[in-house]
Amino acid sequence: MDPTASVVVVGPKQLANRHAVDEITIYRARQCVFMKRVQATAETIAIEDPKGFDWKMQVLREIRPDQQAAIQALSDQLRINWRTALAFERELDETVPTLHRALEDDRREILTRVSEVMVASSEPWTQLARADDIAREIIGRDFERLYGPLVPQVSSGEIARLIGECPVGWQKRQEAHA
Amino acid sequence: MNPLHTLAELLRGGGAQPLFSPERLAPSTIYDLQYRLAITACAFELHAKSDLVNTRRIRAATLKLLQFVAIRPWLVPVLQEWAASQRHPQFSLLASQRLRRGFVGDVTYEAVIAFLVARRVLVRVGSHLVSGQNVDALTPFYTAAVEHSLFAAERRVLQKLVDVKITNSMLEGW
After folding, report:
1. What does the pLDDT average to over A130-147?
2. Which chain B residue's Cα is nearest to A30?
3. Domain limits of chain B?
4. Cβ neighbours for B153, distance < 8 A, ≥ 6 positions apart
5. Rounded to an integer, what distance in angstroms lies between the CA atom of residue B126 and that of residue B19?
6. Which value does ipTM take for this structure?
7. CB-based contact (8 Å) between B23 and chain A?
């Protein structure tokens, strides 16, 4: 930021007189409030059925017993992102149903594209990071303009949801018998 | 570091065997016609009033608000607060702002009602929805929900809202 910049506060009427105030402008003005509310809701929201996610994290601990702390941190972060994604969905559902519909369509597209890359890969784990990119690209397309700062967390949360609610999983590799 | 990158590293390093079940995740019920019909039927059964010509009627905006809150039970206190604040217009406007913004934009409900009107289950009479000649098609949704204990949470909310006075002034202009 330019250190010589000054801040000018104008009221809503002045703003409307000086600039074109359309719906997008109003959304942007409300953006901060919306994002704070999403963060606050995310702290209180409960993941309905986290058993699948917990089980997968337990299997990961058995696979990598040397990485307990990292797995715990990873698990906590994914849960936070998942809750943020749920809070984001809830806020859209309550206040902007048309955007909620767009999010629902995005979720369907994420599932399809992540399924494609993971099933097609001989090393699916290399595709997890790509899955995150895919989610970010799809969600960003519809929400970057309005809720840009939330997009990375919501995208990661959507992939955490895919892990928690079924499609992406793992197990210990079976030892081959001689 | 991005948690998904960390997860990928851990799984790759541990030689985990991938499991992938590409079955579809359950889509949001908000866009499920059967679900929305059932909730609309429950709202109509519990809140529509009988009139002199033996039909049942409900203000269209009231039905829209009731079914909106029924599938979002955490909004019950918001609606209660809005109803209770009617004597304070300024506060009433603030208390209801988010709720109004949401339910007014509920286009899925509009599609459900358009379907019911086209099937003559309901008839539009001014600002009201009145039971039509095929209203019997709506009743089984409610009776089945009660008999099989379906949509219990939504029905509980609708029952609770019987005690909330939704006035015309709250729904003015919608």
Report:
1. 90
2. B98
3. 34-171
4. B73
5. 57
6. 0.71
7. yes
Token output for B76:
């019950």
Could you tell me where the beta strands, DSSP code E, fall in B14-69? 17-20, 49-50, 56-59
The verdict on B101 touching A (C-beta cutoff 8 Å) is yes
- Backbone region of residue A173 per phi and psi (left: phi > 0; alpha: psi in -120 to 50; beta: other values): beta
pLDDT band at A118 (very low <50, low <70, confident <90, very high): confident
Residue B75: closest CA among chain A residues belongs to which residue? A94
Instruction: Evaluate if residue B46 carries a pLDDT over 90.
Output: yes
How far is it, in rounded angstroms, from Cα B2 to Cα A156? 8
Residues of A in contact with B11 (CB under 8 A): 60, 63, 125, 128, 170
Q: Which residues have a Cβ under 8 Å from the Cβ of A14 and sit 6 or more positions away?
A: none
**A126 to chain B, closest Cα gap in Å:** 6
Cα-based distances in Å from B157 to A39, A116, A138, A147, B147: 26, 41, 35, 32, 18
Classify residue B119 as exposed, middle or buried by CB count within 10 Å of its CB (0-12, 13-18, 19+). middle
CA dihedral A118→A120→A125→A131, nearest 10 degrees, is: -40
Cβ-proximal residues to A114 (8 Å cutoff; 6+ apart), any chain: A127, A131, A134, A135, A159, A162, A167, A168
Give the confidence band of B8 by pLDDT, cuts at 50, 70, 90: confident
Which residues in chain B are closer than 8 Å to A167, comparing Cβ atoms?
Answer: 20-23, 25
Among candidates B8, B21, B28 on the partner chain, residue whose Cβ is nearest the Cβ of A166 = B21
Average pLDDT, chain B: 86
Contact B130, B47 (CB under 8 A): no
B30 CA to chain A: closest CA distance, Å?
A: 9
When CB atoms are compared, the residue of A63, A74, A81 closest to B14 is: A63
Compute the nearest-CA separation of B67 from chain A (Å). 13
B72 and chain A in contact, CB less than 8 A:
yes
- pTM (whole model) above 0.80: no
pLDDT tens string A15-32: 777 777 776 677 667 777
